[in-house]
Amino acid sequence: MLSNADIERARKEARRRELNRQLTRVNGQIYSVEQLITNFQNQKNAMQDFSDEWTRAKERAMASEIVQSIKVSKVFEGDIADKYSTELPEKIRNMDSNNIKARSVITMTQSQITKLNTHKSTLESRKRGIVSELNSL
Questions:
Q1: How far apart are the C-alpha atoms of 52 and 123, rounded to whole Å?
Q2: CB-based burial label for 132 (10 Å; 0-12, 13-18, 19+)
Q3: At residue 75, what are phi and psi to the nearest 5 degrees?
Q4: Contacts for 58 with CB less than 8 Å, ≥ 6 apart
Q5: How many whole angstroms separate alpha carbon 14 and alpha carbon 60?
Q6: Do the beta carbons of residue 95 and residue 58 sit within 8 Å?
Q7: Percentage of residues in the chain having pLDDT higher than 70
Q8: What pLDDT sits at residue 97?
Q9: pLDDT tens, 18-56?
Q10: Which of 12, 53, 109, 125 could form a disulfide with 44, with the two C-beta atoms 3.0–4.6 Å apart?
Q11: What's the distance, CA 135 to chain centroid?
Q12: 119 burial class (0-12, 13-18, 19+ CB within 10 angstroms)?
């Protein structure tokens, strides 16, 4: 017949095995979340760099005298200068709109990173609780 001490040891050992399984699962979840955070951050940085470079290139182009006037006086340009002078402002507005949309995606990506960091903190808190219970057994 098993003594109360043997029963208690068996109960603790079963609980220890269950907690170790939980700890392994939580560690895996933390690792997965960290990978997602890294991937999102890398993509956000790439989008931010591209958007910033586009903005700098546009500023350099818009500072050009030829872009500001499109038509060059005393130079035969055919009909193309007239066409560009009417189309360019609309094209620039479209590109600005696309850059604004890209920046919106960057903001939404940061929001996802923030949510993932919150989830990671929750998992780490759960991990600390498991470790604490393991240490108390």
A1: 35
A2: exposed
A3: -130, 130
A4: 92, 95, 96
A5: 69
A6: yes
A7: 88
A8: 95
A9: 999 999 999 999 999 999 999 999 999 999 999 999 999
A10: 109
A11: 36
A12: middle
Measured distance CA(133)–CA(127) in Å, rounded: 10
C-alpha angle 60-62-65 in degrees, rounded to nearest 5? 100
Q: For residue 62, what are the CA distances in angstroms to 51, 56, 57?
A: 16, 10, 8
Exposed (0-12), middle (13-18) or buried (19+): which is 57, by Cβ within 10 Å?
A: exposed
| Domain assignments of the chain as residue spans, ordered by start | 4-136
Which residue type sits at 85? S
Q: Cα dihedral angle (73, 74, 75, 80), rounded to 10 degrees?
A: 50
